[in-house]
């Protein structure tokens, strides 16, 4: 999952997708990671509000640390899923011409329409909960894609 700072939406998506894949017995089929396109939070834990929200849903993201998108990520991953269109644009610009990785919008790739996961960083607990629910629904859809090997 790709986001700007890698402290809210993307670590939430990493944690939720890992949890849902594990529950489905598919964790060995998919390597999940999260990155940011910016470097302002590199090395930091997720936002405390993101940790609390995920924890409320039995998903632990407290051990994750922010890192920045690298050129190697485009070779290491088949699909890079972006939280919003701005991040999508930035990631596609960085994608090397030789890379075969798909760079897509998370919710669209999950079959939930061409919309963004709103960034909860400047919002309230309700905004973190809304982002979590969208990400969790997307993770469930992604698990089905993995089950059906549609990626």
From TrEMBL:
Q: Which keywords are on file for this protein?
A: Hydrolase, Protein phosphatase
Asked if the Swiss-Prot or TrEMBL record annotates the protein with the keyword Hydrolase, the reply is yes
Asked whether the UniProt record includes Hydrolase among its keywords, one would answer yes
Q: Which Pfam families match?
A: LMWPc (PF01451)
Limits of the Phosphotyrosine protein phosphatase I domain? 2-145
Which superkingdom?
Answer: Bacteria
Q: What is its EC number?
A: 3.1.3.48
As for family, the record states: Belongs to the low molecular weight phosphotyrosine protein phosphatase family.
Q: What is this protein called?
A: protein-tyrosine-phosphatase
Q: What is the lineage of its organism?
A: Bacteria, Pseudomonadati, Pseudomonadota, Gammaproteobacteria, Lysobacterales
């Amino acid at each position: 999952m790709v986001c700007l700072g890698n402290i809210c939406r993307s670590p939430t998506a990493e944690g939720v997708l890992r949890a849902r894949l594990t529950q489905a017995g598919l964790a060995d089929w998919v390597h999940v990671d999260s990155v940011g396109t910016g470097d302002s939070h590199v090395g930091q834990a997720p936002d405390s509000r993101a940790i609390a929200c995920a924890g409320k849903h039995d998903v632990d993201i407290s051990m994750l640390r922010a890192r920045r998108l690298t050129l190697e990520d485009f070779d290491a991953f088949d699909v890079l899923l972006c939280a919003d269109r701005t991040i999508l644009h930035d990631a596609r610009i960085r994608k090397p011409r030789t890379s075969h990785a798909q760079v897509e919008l998370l919710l669209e790739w999950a079959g939930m329409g061409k919309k963004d996961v709103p960034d909860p960083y400047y919002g309230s607990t309700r905004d973190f909960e809304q982002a979590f629910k969208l990400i969790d629904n997307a993770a469930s859809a992604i698990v089905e894609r993995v089950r059906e090997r549609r990626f």
